[in-house]
User: What shape does this take?
Amino acid sequence: MANIPLVRGQKRYSGIYRAATTNDHVIYESRLELARLLFADFDPSVRHIVAQPFLLRADLDGKVRKHIPDYLLITGQGPVVVDVKPLHRVSKPEVAFTFDWTRRTVECVGSRG
Assistant: This one.
């Protein structure tokens, strides 16, 4: 694992992880993302991991919304879209809306969110 040094005032702990699953580097932007990445790398059903795989963009209720999921996991059961947030932020209305919107969108194309 290569970590980018912390800088005064930096809010994120980002870095690069060498994943055995992909035999390549995968980026992460927080320790929580790194923890989720480690779980995916050690999960035998995960065949490939992609960080920040795509941009979701839509005009919803007159407001342009954009979201980039944290990871896309390719598993034996199909693709899985992963968003990572601390538990205390999941109940916030904007985060809950984004998670629900992402889940509904990826389910429309046959993935699990």
